[in-house]
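Student: I would love a firmer grasp of how sequence relates to backbone shape in proteins. Thank you; the sequence and its tokens follow:
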Amino acid sequence: MGAGHGHGHGIEPGEKPTRARINRMLIGLAIIVAFLILEVVVGILIGSLALLADAGHMATDVIALLMGVTALILAHRGSRNPRRTFGWHRAEVLTAIINATLLLGISAYILIEAIERLSAPPEVPGLPMILVALAGLAANIVVLLIIRSGSRESLAMKGAYMEVLADAVSSVGVLIAGVLTLAFGWNRADAVAGVLISLWIVPRALKLAGQALRILTQASPAEVDVAQVDADLSAIPGVEDVHDLHIWSLTTGMDVVTVHLTTSADNQEVLRLAKNALAAHGLDHATIQIDSPEEKRHCDHTVTW
């Protein structure tokens, strides 16, 4: 029996998030908190549902950034140990689940409140809505630029990025509602903006939750064709059987594969070719076990998953 463990140049389970990524999250957090306070105060003073709805969504931005920073710090400082051999990398996935849940809850509240206001819309001054919406849009754009690069590397940062992006869109909705209220005296614009903001957020929250649940349930990565991986391994000269092929993601960008190959040929050559085949699919973190035909028969009788 032979075994091989391969590492490529992708992100390794022991690799820590950079300090720069954490600093970007902290800067974004400070900007969002400052604007959140402004939006809540103005929203209460003028009685704007759109502003308060946007503030509620921005509160989830704050929570998302806080949890994202916490997850990244844990991954940065939480080294592997005998109890946590992968460190704290899954903290990012749990963060994404909580973010999605908060987004759905806030969206439901906004939607219900906005529908109630449509029947009896209160008078809301348009100019303060416009000014605050412009300030909010500027703040969101700055934060998006700060954390954009990290959103492609981390599920925690992707969740935060999506929430800030959604908030930028909702700021545009508030801005339009303010213009309609100021120019035409259409008081329902505030409630309509609240409804549209809610409906815009929901599918994005569901998508984020789906991505996180895919990792938590150890489903194969969406971008990996498992059947093709199996076929490529089976095509290696000397490989008689491919079994116990498991591919999953530890967290964003950390795909892992384990597989048993049955062969009577040279183990080292089969191992080398198998590593190359897996690397072609972006699977650099691989554990490969080489079995003889006798050992394969033993696995068939003892392994049930």
Q: What stands out?
A: The beta strands are 2-6, 239-251, 254-263, 285-291. The longest strand covers residues 239-251. The radius of gyration is 25 Å. Confidence is low (pLDDT under 50) at residues 7-15.
